[in-house]
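Protocol step 4 of 6: structure prediction from sequence.
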Amino acid sequence: MNEKYWIAFSSIEQLDSKFIKQLWDYFGDIEKAFGADLDSLKKIDGLSVKKCENFLRLRDRVNIDKSFADVESRGINFLTLESANYPYMLKQIDNPPAVLYYKGKLFDCNLEKTLAVVGSRKASTSARDNLRKLIKGLGNTDICIVSGLASGIDTVAHTSAIENNLKTIGVIASGLDHIYPSQNKNLYENIENGYGAVITEYYPTFEPIKFRFPQRNRIVTGLSFGTLVVEASLKSGALISANLTLEQGRELMCMPGDISNINTQGIYKLLKNGASMITESDDILNALNWEIKKEESQVQLTLPTMTPDEENIYKNIEVEEKGIDELLSLTGMNLDDLLMNLTTMELKGLIKQSGADRYKKAL
């Protein structure tokens, strides 16, 4: 059974997928690659004697059957580069994962309509809100949202997908024994239990070490037909993902934001260099040349009926949030009437608070 040799390779923490694939390509058989001797390894172009000797030293410590049994006992599914159903888009990148471990229902996701979403961990409120609107516009379709299960934009992307009846794939930078960040435990479980899949190239016990996060990014973009960058400073993981998207020959899209925000500096750099500008969900469909059919059960949302006073308030926060003092001045209402109307509008779901005594539209 060849699968256990792929797992054995993957269980050696010091090896990467590029090395494993190099040996597999040369020997044409993963079992022969794993059992190769020094003389055979030295014939492979680009492998130093030191690297060959290091591999043999690490290999001899591996218990092949135990490595495989430890994966199976955890209920973890996996695919290898030899698997017939290995994701096609991912297999086309320069350095595809030798093994993909996953929990959840990966093949309930439509891997022919995958959209990567990346952005800042310290995303602005407006970026989060605008991303929610974009994903809501894609709701009840067969589009699959791919992201990295980190805090910030990643979390918004996954949760918005679930809220809008979309499948989602979370790509993590550790083995499946670890949940990072820990506050996303429920999100991990929701994705695994019917909303998509959590996947990784790392053996279950491998920890979320810093260098693994940028490595993970190539899988997020590699699985996807295009990448939407929501916020990115000039030195950020999101900008790394943008560059990977271009290297992989996929569509790069950016959501514009406040020009005074440090996290939009990378966005405007990408837009100036030709990335597609995304301000509504249809822009994503046009950029990727996708046609979608929404489920018939989807109901078009409409605003609840408003009184003239409520319309006055709503009109004044339609563009941006306002504080109490600003609304008093703009609406000409007295304080008691304003507060009463604000409370009623909150109950109707028309508006919501944004910080102390500030309000913005909710729909």
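Step 5 (inspection) to follow. Residues 296-301 have pLDDT under 50 and may be disordered.
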